[in-house]
Amino acid sequence: MLNSRQKKALVCGAGGFIGSHLVKRLKKEGYWVRGVDLKYPQFSPTQADDFVIGDLREQSVVRRVVDMPFDEVYQLAADMGGAGYVFTGDNDADIMHNSALINLNVLEACYKRNIKKIFYSSSACIYPQERQTQVDSPCLKEEWAYPAHPDSEYGWEKLFSERLYLNFHRNYGMEVRIARLHNIYGPEGSWNDGREKAPAAICRKVAMAKDGDEIEIWGDGKQVRTFLYIDECLEGIRRLMNSDFTGPVNIGSDERISINGLVEMVADIAGKKIKIKNRPEVKALGVRGRCSDNTLIKEKLGWVPNYPLRKGMEKTYIWIKEQVEKLRQQ
Question: Is 146 known to be catalytic?
């Protein structure tokens, strides 16, 4: 039952990893929540008060979903995946077309409903390739987005959509909030469907391996990333929405680790001896080194992510190991 005194939130992409966790967070905070996605969350029932199965590329669906003056809208819906989906080039047309269409539709509908406050989920993939060519490349500052030269069409679409939201803010007075998310991971995310990211893929490979086995890792394994646990991602999003800062702002960790180092961490968590077979010939890897500079988020929100990677990977490994065991029992 919708309480007229409750804050109302719409989460676009509520069937996805971050979106489904965001719905849970908003419900804990007392919101009435509507979720929309092509599918329900895969690993646990949605906690949304109302969940609409629909395609946000269709204007009729968006109009049906945005049928009231929501207090807050969270736009996380996108055509995305890990390196195997984003960097091969095989999905570029879908990635750009589908995500851009979703953003155009959602923004227009929110404007027509006079919805003022909307969060847009951008990505660290918007940053120029030239800033990320070395494993020890400096952490990425928000102002380094231009001159623009993302390493993928996914990054180009995110950068276009950032500008789209900023112009609706400038021209129409919409309260826009934009965050560039850096490699979010945790339980209840893709782990074996071709769209999983490195933490989940590595957890799966280690969980499926026997002690002493060898697992394949794309690239030479020296490529460096930072990874942010899902709970800290949500904390950053909520703090941004409750602030008066538009963004864009990084929401990411500055704790660097190589991909081979991440394998070694997960193997240690699992209590297994794992051999690594690197495949340097695989090119679908993205940039060489990426790290989130958190100066701006500390200045604007008075907060920085600080949850240790090891703790987050322990929780993620336990959950993925359970999924692997369920799969084996089928």
Answer: no
